[in-house]
Amino acid sequence: MTTGSRVDDAGANWAGTYRYAARSVVTVTTVEQIASLVAEGGRVRAIGTRHSFNDLADTTGTLIDVSALDFDPRIDEERQHVTVPAGMSYGTLGRFLQERGWALANMGSLPHISIGGACATGTHGSGAGNQNLAAAVCGIDLVAGRGQRISLDETDVRFHGGVVALGALGIATLLTLRIEPTYDVRQDVFINMPWEDLNKLDAIMNSAYSASLFTRWNGVVDQVWLKSRIGESSSSPTPSGSSATPAEGKVMSPADDGHDNTTVQGGIPGPWNERLPHFRFDEIPSNGDEIQSEYFVAREDALAALRALEPIAHDFTPHLLISELRSVAADHLWLSPAYERDSLTIHFTWKNQPDAVRRLLPTIEDALRPFSARPHWAKWFSMDKSEISALYSRLPDFITLADELDPDGQFRNDYLSRIVGLN
Asked: Cα separation of 173 and 116, whole Å?
């Protein structure tokens, strides 16, 4: 049996700001090929659209590229589920579902990311009532250690530890997601919201199905993006309690990257998959040459956490492209950054200045420590396993599960040792 095509240069992540140290990358098209590669022994990890900004997906052995898995999505209309290959992008799945009258409840800002990678890292969209993307998963197929094929669903006691799993349990091959009938969304943009309006942060975040606030920490929220499901409200959306001004015409990316790559604005209704993301699937996403960090704090602590960052903003703004504030609803996935608490995410898109970012992160984390801020697993942070372990009550259970499904440590790497304590 062929085990896929192999290249010796593992290359870099999509932004070009992390270069993989793996010996080689093997592109596979079948689950059988994955199982064969894992059964050979040695260190392996999965890779998809390469949207991680740190060494989470890396290995000293072989990266298995799952982006070309040959599997057509299957819709179960009665159960309202879709089963998809883990390497498929959300943009591709969105088009597939929309053409057939179906939808996901949520999307991330970039439709270019892989479904498996986003779910494994607790990546999210926005919305006070919207959970992270992994919360839509109701089944997952894995190639675990020694090539063993395993299926987990919501009836399995291991399920809530197996979705946001950081690739530590095996290579995800298929995921089954909840879907719903298709719907339309309008996107309205407001500019120049006074910083003091953040005193009404909860009301603003509840103003639409999805809300995003963009700021450079210069005394103003530069842009407020509200995404509203058509039919949920009879009036035009506005950021509640804010004096922000409606934008005139198309507003470009908040990071000023010079590309007209954002999704349609101006309150024009359109399909969910073309409005919920910030960036168009047919364009280059985001700034590109960047580093990202993000921290989740409890919604009840959101305003205090922002106030704690204000005194140090002058230190980090020279290195910042943009910050984004979003809401994520609580879930029950053991390693989800929104585990058991409604959250505000404080996101930083940094200029590609790694030394400066490394110096800044401990200061930012010190300011957020009173709020038990949980970092996004796939973005830059400086916390170690002692700090991380205090943030996740089910981490010991996760380590036990990883030992069960990966007895030889094939999927472990420096990241999992340094951050999670999997050696």
From this structure: 8
